């Protein structure tokens, strides 16, 4: 990769307001001290933090061990993550979970109620003959029961893998098979935008053939009673004990797996990202306290679904381990009206609000001036995640939602990193719309050129890498050590963790994320592998070849343009485009549907048969086709494509 030029030049900046400075969990003095400690003794500083913030059953003596890049954190320490998230807070006055359903129903669980519920469900699970390390798939919407399921797995040392409830039977099956799950926990159905999604039918489809290793499907009757009960099915309420019961949390080694979460990579097969217990929990707690300044009296609403890493770290594990109150909304943002989010913030006095740029852009589009009709004064911190936020959306969020008073924490991180890595600390960093500012204490992020040398000049783009291991780092890819090493460590000879993102520094040393350097697109803040979508498309009987690229989209950040050559000429191309969109939705899920579909006789390929996606990207983005086209096997195809795009 040559040096990437950057043309963005944002001049507005916002110093920390008084509002955000008072009483912060991390003050400027703390930050300076902490950075100094990390500089002097990195491992000792992590160890001190782990001792302060985590409840250990057995103290650790190892801080970071293991052979690079298979690092282990606090490996001889023992803890239970569920005990850290629930048991130690049972006497707290503040609620644990406030749940708002799409129909407006509100349920509140105190920490002691959550404790009782987790214990009951843990007991039910413990009766199924499972062993520590067995895998459990959770295919549920974001409701208290899915959180109870996650925490119960953690209590018993079972490894959960939450699959986003919007994924199709195919995508679900792929994940169930890859991790050989013994149990699937789901709901009969749930409502999204008023429409019923029958999750249980999707599960039945996913495991219809060759899935005998799935011993039971547990169904929470979320919408109606379970019909069509199969012999392996268990109804959630039927297996819960009727009276309170205590289930001793199992003391797990710090490096035992807490969960697997699948994410897209640059091949067709999703990667099962593995996270261990102690290290993951530490960065979750620290970032909730530092970046979100989370306190007992806060109501923290992170809008992410539990099917994504943000839902794991900033809905479930981080905030609960801090003993805070989380709000979860199990519904669509624009249903039944476009001000639903503002209404929820107002009615529940939400103080910290964390969402994705796509949501911000959508809400801005549907009602730019609407927020003023709601009382949003309870808000004190706003956050964004998942993709770069454009300055226009940033300013709207800052002025219309935060009333110019709330710092926006633009948090950069990944499924693999487990927790925020680059983000402002409210009250300390000067904010500039579009930059996630600087790396958090202990995180050694840097930008390097093609030789791995640190870039020193501003506005030169290079690979964003992390130089030292950090506690919440992934511990590998489930069942594929080689892919782990290859994907994340091989580019610079195992010296750095390679994020797959490109970035630049500005004149003040702030980090600006520029985009992905691999074949991954980011649609509405969700990472999708282009290869995955291409393989879904070519599995359709009419498709000969497919290439997928992204282009800039006003709301989604990036959207998908699929270029397709067909086996035969269809009569109606528009109809076929719709059929193929639906096909992708069935194969992967509706988030992966191509926005645009173009058909041509063939695709631009090199003489060695490699599709030149670079050219297709130029076309999809309405750019001039640049660069060398002399290696093209069929140069005339470019003219044909220019006419149809
Ligand atoms: O490209 C970066 C983008 O999202 C990717 C990680 O995606 P995923 O693992 O699905 O996790 C999303 C939620 C953490 C990154 O490699 N990304 C994430 N946060 C930001 C971002 N891009 C720009 N700014 C961010 N704040």
Question: In words, what does this structure look like?
Answer:
This protein has 645 residues and is α/β, with parallel strands linked by helices. It has two domains: 13-47 and 73-445, Rossmann fold (3-Layer(aba) Sandwich), CATH 3.40.50.12780; 520-642, GMP Synthetase, Chain A, domain 3 (2-Layer Sandwich). Helix content is 30%, strand content 23%. The chain contains 19 helices and 31 strands. The strands form nine sheets. It has a seven-stranded mixed β-sheet, with helices on both faces. Strands 1, 22, 23, 25 and 26 form a five-stranded antiparallel β-sheet that branches. The chain has a five-stranded parallel β-sheet with strand order 8-7-9-12-13, sandwiched between helices. A hairpin with a 2-residue loop joins strand 10 (190-192) and strand 11. Helix 7 (169-179) packs across helix 8 and helix 13 (357-366) crosses helix 14. It is globular. It starts with a strand and ends with a helix. Bound molecules: adenosine-5'-monophosphate-propyl ester.
């Amino acid at each position: 990769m040559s040096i990437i030029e950057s043309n963005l030049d944002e001049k507005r900046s916002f110093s920390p307001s008084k509002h955000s400075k008072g009483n912060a969990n991390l003050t400027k003095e703390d930050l300076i001290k902490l950075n100094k400690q990390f500089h002097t003794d990195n491992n000792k500083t992590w160890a001190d933090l782990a001792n302060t913030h985590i409840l250990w059953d057995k103290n650790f003596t190892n801080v970071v061990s293991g052979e690079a890049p298979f690092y282990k954190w606090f490996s001889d320490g023992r803890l239970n993550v569920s005990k850290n998230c629930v048991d130690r807070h049972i006497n707290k006055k503040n609620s644990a979970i406030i749940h708002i359903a799409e129909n407006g129903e509100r349920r509140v669980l105190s920490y002691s109620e959550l404790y009782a519920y987790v214990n009951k469900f843990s007991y039910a699970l413990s009766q199924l003959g499972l062993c520590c390390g067995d895998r459990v798939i959770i295919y549920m919407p974001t409701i208290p029961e899915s959180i109870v399921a996650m925490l119960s797995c953690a209590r018993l040392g079972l490894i959960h893998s939450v699959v986003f409830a919007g994924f199709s039977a195919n995508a679900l099956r792929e994940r169930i098979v890859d991790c050989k799950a013994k149990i699937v926990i789901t709901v009969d159905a749930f409502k999204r935008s008023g429409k019923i999604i029958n999750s249980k039918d999707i599960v039945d489809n996913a495991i219809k053939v060759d899935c005998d290793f799935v011993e039971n499907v547990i169904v929470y009757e979320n919408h109606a009673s379970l019909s069509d009960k199969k012999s392996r099915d268990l109804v959630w309420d039927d297996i819960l004990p009727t009276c309170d019961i205590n289930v001793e949390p199992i003391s797990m080694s710090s490096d035992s797996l807490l969960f697997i979460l699948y994410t897209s990579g640059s091949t067709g097969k999703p990667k099962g990202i593995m996270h261990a217990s102690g290290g993951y929990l530490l960065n979750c707690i620290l970032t909730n306290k530092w970046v979100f300044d989370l306190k007992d009296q806060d109501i923290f609403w992170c809008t992410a679904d539990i099917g994504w890493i943000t839902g794991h770290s900033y809905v479930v594990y981080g905030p609960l381990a801090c003993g805070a109150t989380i709000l979860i909304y199990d519904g669509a943002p624009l249903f039944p009206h476009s001000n639903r989010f503002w209404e929820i913030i107002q009615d529940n006095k939400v103080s910290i609000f964390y969402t994705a740029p796509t949501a911000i852009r959508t809400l801005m589009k549907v009602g730019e001036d609407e927020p003023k009709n709601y009382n949003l004064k309870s808000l004190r911190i706003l956050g964004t995640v998942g993709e770069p936020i454009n300055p226009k959306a940033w300013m709207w969020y800052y002025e219309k939602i935060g009333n110019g008073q709330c710092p926006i924490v633009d948090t950069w991180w990944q499924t693999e990193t487990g927790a925020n890595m680059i983000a402002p600390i409210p009250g300390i960093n000067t904010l500039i719309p579009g930059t996630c500012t600087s790396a958090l204490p202990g995180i050694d992020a840097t930008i390097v050129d093609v030789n791995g040398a640190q870039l020193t000049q501003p506005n030169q783009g290079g690979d964003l890498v992390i130089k030292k291991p950090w506690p919440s780092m992934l511990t590998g890819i489930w069942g594929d050590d080689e892919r782990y090493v290859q994907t994340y460590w091989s580019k610079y000879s195992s010296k750095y963790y390679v994020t797959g993102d490109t970035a630049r520094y500005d004149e003040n040393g702030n980090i600006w994320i520029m985009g992905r350097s691999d074949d991954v697109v980011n649609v509405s803040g969700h990472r999708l592998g282009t290869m995955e979508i291409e393989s879904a498309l070519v599995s359709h009987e009419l498709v000969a070849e497919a290439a997928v690229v992204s282009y800039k989209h006003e709301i989604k950040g990036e959207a998908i343009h699929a270029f397709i050559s067909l086996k035969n000429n269809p009569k109606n191309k528009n109809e076929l485009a719709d059929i193929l969109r639906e096909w992708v939705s069935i194969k992967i899920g509706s988030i992966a549907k191509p926005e645009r579909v173009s058909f041509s006789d063939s695709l631009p390929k090199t003489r060695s048969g490699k599709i030149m996606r670079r050219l297709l990207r130029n076309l999809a983005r309405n750019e001039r086709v640049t660069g060398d086209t002399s290696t093209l096997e069929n140069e005339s195809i470019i003219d044909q494509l220019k006419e149809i795009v």
